[in-house]
Design a protein that fits this description.
The chain is mostly beta strands and about 325 residues long. It is built from 1 helix and 27 strands. It has a 9-stranded antiparallel sheet, with no helix packed on it. A 6-stranded antiparallel sheet has the order 16-25-24-21-18-19, with no helix packed on it. Strands 1-2-3-4 form a 4-stranded antiparallel sheet, with no helix packed on it. The longest helix is centred in the middle third of the chain and has 4 residues.
Amino acid sequence: MTDAAPTETPTVVSGTPVVLRAHGYEAAIASVGASLRSLTHEGRDLVVPFDADELRPAYRGTTLAPWPNRIVDGIHRFGGAEHQLALTEPDRGHALHGLLSWVSWNVSDATADAVTLTAAVPAQAGYPWWLVVSTTYRLGADGLTQTVRATNLADTPAPWGTGPHPYLVAGSAPLDAWTLGLPADTVLEVTPDRLAPVALASVAVDAERFDFRAPRVLGAVEIDHAYTDLVRDAGSRATVTLIDPSGTGVAMSWDAACAWVQIHTADLPAGPGTPGHRAGLAVEPMTCAPDAFNDDAYDFDTGVVALAPGASHEASWTISAL
């Protein structure tokens, strides 16, 4: 694998490989899913990695588009018509994480510290709009920034949403010992079996499980929920922090385009001993809520973007070492 020198023909399972290096950071990008395969700072993992010649574990590190999270039953009603998507989360019966996670994106404009990948979302059953999506990964002194931009090539408005799917790593201690800071006032309650949205609630309703506005140790809580009403800084950025008992840590921040964030403690059905179980904390900034394409079904603003013909939408987020 060479620095920022992708091959024309993928030679590994995860697709065309690109490595970026700058400011003590190293990021490995895989073209399948425009995935963040690994990210280190001074040799320390900031995300749970996977090998270049490994089938990516589920959605680890992928770029979610044209929707993040799930669409309940794979059915959405947009533009006065009902659409049925393929059920890519068969255990729960939903359409999960968009249409580009297993597509090999085209790699272009690769340099030592940045790379751009592009992919098309062709009009298809369940999503009859043409989109072009590009994403740029760039290393800076503040870490790795990913920007996603979509343009609607169709002649009618298209529903749109995006987000990333990294599993953050604070340090060498187990996840239960990490201290989480999550500046969100509201959590989206979901059904326990299918994780279908129910209603918004204050994080104080179940503070032990959901309230991390004052940073505290995660412990044994299990979370797989979306949060909103985020507290932002003067630049309209929201930031999640994760600190190891040793003092090392990682932060993820995002811009105003992302009004939501999904937090998942990576609990797997088979439990302890299963590879990947509670190995990292999924922090997924999202431009819209779960099931956002069905905005009319909820009494809150899901944040779905109705992307006009010819229009573009952009969102970005940054992962930094602490």
